Amino acid sequence: MTKKNKSELSVLLGAAFLMATSAIGPGFLTQTATFTEQFQANFGFAIFICIVMALIVQLNVWRVIGITGLRAQDIANKVFPGLGYLIAFLVALGGLVFNIGNVGGAGLGLNVLFGLDIRVATAIGGISGMLLFASKNAKSIMDRVTNILGILMIVVTTVSAVASNPPVGVAIQKTLMPENINALLFPILTLLGGTVGGYIVFSGGHRLVDAGITGKENIKDIDKSASTGILVSSIMRVIFFLLVLGVVSKGIALESTNPAASAFQNAAGNVGYKFFGVVLFSASVSSVIGAAYTSVSFLKTFSKVIEENENKFIIGFIALSTVIMVFIGQPASLLVLAGSLNGLILPITLGTMLIASVKKEIVGDYQHPKLLLILGIIIVIATAYTGFLSLQNITKLF
């Protein structure tokens, strides 16, 4: 394998893990634990459908970004002048608010592992993310770090899942034949937003644009990278689901304040609790990296200064998130607002990519697969409905 091929393979894998670890944040853990306790083995069906839908979204988005060699906001501006600026603003705003939660999660992870004061631990979590982007080789380091953290999370969670002794046979049966599909529809769309909503679906695609892995000649590699990203996040989701199922199927109730920590602790005792610290820190720091990198990649459209000083702006983005978290604490209202924005962003961004996929002035002679297009349209309609429902959360804030 040539040096160039090794470099491209590293970027393709890095893009996949950047997307996957961006999805696996503190909210991912809490959401999965809460829904598993509520729906038990039936939740396996929701996870399965979400995986299929997330793959459809990701392939649609990454293919259009890859074929055009443009970032999402620039594609959006070609679809409708000014739309790209709106999307960039919404994604960056959502990314900032989620990043506040991610930095807080990193602090909590360090608190669990070493008993550090939560504010000190939060500052260390934020600084660890900033240090990565202080290097001239930040993007290649980012690829390696997200790979390592992703694998670490999967290994540690697998050990805890085995210790929880989940009823795998029941999980498979209920995944194929759930008791109440209607009750699972909203959790499916909620999971979808957490897997490919907001900035997450664009993180790896923008990484490929930065590395110049674009054009029709690279479409197979782009598809593989997109699929790998969904596969990694899905493996983590399934293993954690089995871990929690092993606990709740024995009639053990999870602590409502921190269901994910409770699941790890009940599965493997104090060692499990420390494992939770490792997973939470890894999930949070990798999400800090993904949110900051992707949010700033959207802001490049606004100014050449941002494009020329990308790493400095990423460091500033993480610093702002850290300061807000340390001095203000958990911004509950902002997190509700960010969740609502996330529900609104996916149908807008996916819909925009689907329109772009059939415009020759944007994609040239590229023929977008009709099946992907039709399935993508169905998902736009479904997520637009849940996005409309999420508007109720925004009105409650004012």
Low-confidence stretches: none
- Secondary-structure arrangement, i.e. CATH architecture: Orthogonal Bundle
Q: Report the C-alpha radius of gyration, rounded.
A: 20 Å
The count of β-strands is: 0
What is the helical fraction, as a range of percent? over 70%
Number of domains: 1
* Main β-sheet description: none
Structural class: mainly alpha
Indicate the mean pLDDT. 93
Can you count the helices?
Answer: 17
In CATH, the topology is named: Hydantoin permease
In CATH terms, the superfamily is Hydantoin permease
CATH top level assignment: Mainly Alpha
* Helix/strand order, N-terminal first: HHHHHHHHHHHHHHHHH
Sum up the overall morphology in one term: globular
Range of strand content: under 5%
The N- to C-terminal Cα distance equals 58 Å
Explained architecture:
- By secondary structure, this protein is mostly helical.
- Helix content is about 85%, strand content about 0%.
- The longest helix has about 40 residues.
- It is globular.
- The model has no long low-confidence stretch (mean pLDDT about 95).
